[in-house]
Specification:
- The protein is an alpha+beta fold.
- The protein folds into 2 domains: 185 residues, no CATH class; 116 residues, PDZ domain (Pdz3 Domain), CATH 2.30.42.
- Helix content is 47%, strand content 23%.
- It has 8 helices and 13 strands.
- The chain has a 4-stranded antiparallel β-sheet. The protein has a 3-stranded antiparallel β-sheet with strand order 7-8-13. Strands 1-2 form a two-stranded antiparallel sheet.
- Helix 1 packs parallel to helix 6 and helix 2 runs antiparallel to helix 7.
- The radius of gyration is 26 Å and the shape is elongated.
């Protein structure tokens, strides 16, 4: 896949998550009787408009997000006519606001259901098998190629990346480095990899792992590889391994593992946000430029399976970030509704507009700063 194609697919994947988010707001707003004025894919001037009976659907110039406009949610002059956000009950408004993040969570679950159903899910941290995905440094100089399957190190059989690393590291003297003999199976040019599915065992009943099937007819080659020392007790040979993919034996296991995965990343993300808010961790903001770059690299190196795993994690992140109580995020709108519930009356329109406007300005400044930083880093 070309670089242009990977960047395009990565950008489309990110925007698909934004569209799913806005679709949640749109559907629940309609269900609650609110008037949705605009549904936009992308930001900026519209390139294409389709005007329906109740909503204008558009594709905008900048493919970096999207939005829905609901009558009564913004503007100096309140729109409190039929179908206005202001006329909906507090619970209806809260449901509409929560629907966006909730749809991102559902999207992550749907992606994991597909990945576990097709045996394409990866673990965290990722576990490598013994297939060479990319090669550089000492291994490349010795003649190892992408697509080779590492079968043994100094005659000792290996099945996983960890086996190779332990064998190479264990063969090294206290000072300096010693060459190791890698035995690989090399498939014929153009041969498609086949995988066998193996039950992991009693610790994770119903979980299968996909391991490469090595044809006995494939060429066997030995390479003398001298590792590079990269630190005390650490060496590298310059091999990036394929990730071992996981799947479910049946539908029940597929649902269970998918829920566990979404729960794990939700808990991990919440803990990370908690550490940032309490000052125990420095935030690392990423713009759409960096997200797209990482997505394109993932597509190039690992293909669609790796990228879908990343997209599911990103969808969980969008769920969590949008719940932060900061205007103009969904969490900020929920905060206004909570204040209204306690005080038994809505905030004055001018105060709400001022807070939302300040939040939008701060968010735009942060986005522009992070995007400029990521563009400079990229080039």
């Amino acid at each position: 896949m070309s670089t242009t194609a990977t960047v395009l697919y990565a950008l489309l994947g990110f925007n698909a998550l934004v569209v799913v988010h806005e679709l949640g707001h749109f559907l629940v707003a309609r269900w609650c009787g609110m008037r949705v004025l605009t549904f936009s894919v992308g930001l900026g001037p519209p390139l294409l408009k389709i005007t329906g009976k109740r909503t204008t659907f558009q594709i905008a110039l900048l493919p970096v997000g999207g939005f829905v406009t609901i009558a009564g949610m913004s503007g100096k002059v309140p729109d409190d006519g039929p179908g206005s956000y202001l006329r909906a009950t507090r619970w209806q408004r809260a449901a509409m606001v929560l629907a966006g993040p909730f749809f991102n969570l559902v999207a992550a679950l749907a992606i994991y259901l597909y990945l576990f159903g097709t045996i394409n899910a990866v673990t965290f941290p990722p576990v490598g098998n013994n297939v060479v995905r990319d090669v550089a440094g000492p291994a490349a100089a010795a003649g190892v190629r992408p697509g080779d399957v590492v079968l043994a190190v100094d005659g000792a059989p290996v099945r996983f990346r960890s086996d190779v690393n332990e064998a190479v590291g264990g063969a090294q003297p206290a000072e300096g480095v010693r060459a190791v003999r890698l035995t690989v199976a090399r498939p014929p040019a153009g041969a498609a990899f086949q995988y066998v599915h193996e039950d992991i065992g009693r610790h994770e009943p119903g979980l299968w792992r996909a391991l490469p099937k090595v044809d006995p007819a494939w060429e066997r080659l030995d390479f003398e590889v001298t590792p590079e020392r990269v630190g005390p007790g650490r060496v590298k040979i310059g091999v990036l391994y394929d990730l071992m993919t996981l799947g479910a034996r049946d539908f029940g296991a597929m649902v269970r593992f998918s829920l566990e995965k979404v729960g794990f990343y939700t808990q991990l993300g919440a803990k990370t946000i908690g550490r940032i808010l309490t000052g125990r961790e420095t935030p690392d903001f990423s713009s759409v430029v960096r997200i797209t770059q990482v997505g394109a690299d993932t597509l190039r190196i690992g293909g669609a399976g790796w990228y879908l795993n990343q997209l599911a994690m990103l969808s969980v992140s969008l769920f969590l970030l949008n719940l932060l109580p900061f205007p103009p995020l969904d969490g900020g709108r929920l905060l206004f509704l909570a204040v209204e519930g306690v005080s038994r009356r809505p905030l004055p329109r001018r105060i709400e507009n001022a807070v939302q406007g300040a939040g939008i300005a701060l968010l735009l400044c942060l986005m522009l700063f992070v995007m400029a930083r990521d563009i400079v880093h990229l080039f």
